[in-house]
């Protein structure tokens, strides 16, 4: 990085110098020769870092590789000494991965449903088993909270009669869309109304 900064500074200085000399050059006969000499100076300023990199670049690259190897070996030794805690840390990392996966699944489900049904708001909660080794997911239950932005009709209340599951029938298209998108059974999907 320092070599790059030095190259930029050198080129800037040379270009300013060349511009100043060309402005102050006396006549046209002399200007040809001055431009030629200034061009040679510019070429040498450009080629100098390239030649330096070719001659010393191999050493700096090898030194960088050795530095990375020492850091890697230190970290490898640290991992080997922490063998007892590594099992617990892998379990913790798998739990964290599962939580992150479920959170992302819920967000993706909400956004997919929102894109399809833009007059509704959704909140999804999935209960699933995730196998990261075989890349498989087993959805046990998917709860979808729905808040409809449309004005709902007031339902007739009859005392003494049981209310059948009209919510499931009302949002059947949401359930079938979610079932087809996530390749799960419609029986595993529950819908409920979100509170305002």
From TrEMBL:
Entry keyword set: Membrane, Transmembrane, Transmembrane helix
Pfam families: Spore_III_AF (PF09581)
Transmembrane segments annotated in the record for this chain: 6-26, 33-51
Record-given protein name: Stage III sporulation protein AF
Organism: Clostridium butyricum E4 str. BoNT E BL5262
Taxonomic path: Bacteria, Bacillati, Bacillota, Clostridia, Eubacteriales
């Amino acid at each position: 990085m320092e070599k790059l900064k030095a190259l930029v500074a050198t080129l800037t200085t040379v270009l300013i110098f060349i511009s100043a000399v060309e402005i102050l050059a006396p006549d046209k006969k002399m200007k040809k020769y001055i431009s030629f000499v200034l061009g040679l100076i510019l070429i040498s300023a450009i080629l100098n870092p390239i030649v330096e990199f070719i001659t010393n670049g191999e050493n700096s690259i090898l030194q960088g590789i050795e530095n990375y190897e020492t850091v890697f070996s230190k970290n490898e030794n640290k991992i080997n000494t922490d063998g007892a805690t590594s099992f617990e840390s892998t379990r913790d990392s798998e739990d964290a991965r599962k939580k992150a996966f479920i959170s992302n699944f819920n967000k993706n489900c909400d956004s997919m449903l929102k894109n399809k049904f833009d007059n509704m708001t959704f909140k999804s909660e999935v209960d699933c088993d995730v196998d990261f080794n075989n890349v498989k997911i087993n959805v046990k239950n998917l709860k979808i909270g729905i808040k409809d932005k449309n004005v709902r009709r007031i339902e007739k209340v009859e005392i003494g009669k049981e209310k059948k599951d009209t919510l499931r029938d009302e949002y059947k298209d949401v359930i079938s869309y979610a079932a087809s998108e996530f390749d799960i059974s419609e029986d595993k999907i529950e819908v409920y109304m979100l509170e305002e």
